[in-house]
């Protein structure tokens, strides 16, 4: 069972995400979050210093979940290409989840872009994913499943391609079948960096 | 020589872009734009119905310029791969120009995401670029310089990759040499879809 304090924190986060998605980040205040979560302002400020810190907690919780899923994809597979294929499946889930949240992110980013400290928190995951995939591709080169390419360039390509697909899918959800496009285009990029089995 | 009316319009656009980049979209009003451009409110409303329509005019002017450059890149080259390489050079220029404008775009997008009509204007260029590159890649397949891939998937990959690189470069300008990463990663994707000369 969760402790009461953890339940309160979770309640606040879930209520806030619902309000941000429905009314936007700017139009949602701490008072509305407290009402929706059924907590007092005192209880709110025990857990969070501001609306901004609630948003950052939501963002970090999502990123931590994705990190865990990426690590478990790596642990349950043997070779780097197998891990990459499994991670591609994860990305489809992210895609479907992110759907309703674009306006919320845009509003938050537009505020964060004026504040260097918050901005650092916002961009940290991209830097971390680039480092993670650089190391993973390096590992694939060593195990002989990935061609001798520049791992940093390949990692940036992979992160940029998925970020661009995500953004296009959010900007223009009805434009194409983005889940299908993502699977096909990331797969075809991955195929181009793998060493085919016949080459081994 | 430009007509006086065109000069006024250009003055308004240049003043607005400077104010939007410096103070943000939300904090800039029609009054500030008129003062900076040295025009009356009457003259302003002769050309534009609102601050939003000034933003859309700036956006459309940029997109039209890029369209002209893309078309002239195609006209001055013989094969599709030659045209694609020339367009890659253009993208580096877009990259360097876009640098200071991220906060302005984020603020405008976050407003536009609540308004389906404006949103359509915002996403139209992505749809257009996808169609353009789908046709160009199809042309390359016919002329025998590009492999028999799905042109729509390849076009989406190309647009997503460049959009993702642009976004990462804007989010995290000091994280990497983005112009170099762009050149290398788009080039390596293009190499993977070309038919090598020895195969011809």
Proportion of residues in helical segments of chain A = over 70%
- The helix/strand series of chain A, from N terminus to C terminus, equals HHHHHHHHH
Number of helices of chain A: 9
Biggest sheet statistics of chain A: none
**Rg value of chain A:** 20 Å
Structure description:
With 200 residues, chain A is mainly α. The first copy, chain A, contains nine helices and no strands. Chain A has helices at residues 4-23, 30-37, 41-47, 51-75, 80-98, 102-112, 116-143, 151-171, 178-193. In chain A, helix 4 runs antiparallel to helix 5 and helix 8 packs antiparallel against helix 9 (178-193). Chain A starts with a helix and ends in a 7-residue tail after the last helix. Chains A and B meet through helix 6, helix 7, helix 8 and helix 9 of A and helix 6, helix 7, helix 8 and helix 9 of B.
Keywords:
homodimer, 200 residues, mainly alpha, elongated
Write a short abstract of this structure.
The first copy, chain A, has 200 residues and is mainly alpha-helical. Chain A has helices at 4-23, 30-37, 41-47, 51-75, 80-98, 102-112, 116-143, 151-171, 178-193.
Detail the topology: elements first, then pairings.
The structure is a homodimer of 200-residue chains.
Chain A: H1 4-23, H2 30-37, H3 41-47, H4 51-75, H5 80-98, H6 102-112, H7 116-143, H8 151-171, H9 178-193
């Amino acid at each position: 069972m969760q402790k009461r304090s953890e339940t309160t924190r979770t309640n606040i986060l879930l209520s806030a995400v619902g309000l941000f998605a429905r009314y936007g980040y700017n139009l949602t205040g701490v008072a509305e979050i407290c009402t929706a979560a059924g907590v007092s302002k005192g209880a709110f400020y025990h857990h969070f210093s501001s609306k901004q810190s609630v948003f950052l907690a939501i963002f970090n919780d999502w990123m931590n979940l994705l990190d865990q899923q990426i690590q478990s994809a790596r642990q349950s597979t043997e070779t780097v290409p197998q891990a990459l294929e499994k991670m591609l499946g994860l990305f489809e889930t992210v895609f479907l989840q992110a759907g309703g949240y674009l306006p919320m992110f845009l509003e938050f980013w537009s505020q964060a872009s004026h504040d260097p400290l918050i901005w650092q928190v916002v961009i940290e995951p991209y830097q971390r994913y680039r480092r993670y995939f650089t190391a993973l591709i390096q590992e694939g080169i060593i195990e002989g499943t990935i061609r001798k390419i520049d791992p940093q360039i390949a990692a940036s390509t992979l992160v940029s391609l998925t970020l661009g697909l995500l953004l296009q899918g959010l900007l223009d959800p009805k434009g194409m079948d983005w889940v299908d496009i993502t699977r096909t285009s990331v797969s075809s990029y991955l195929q181009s960096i793998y060493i085919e089995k016949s080459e081994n």
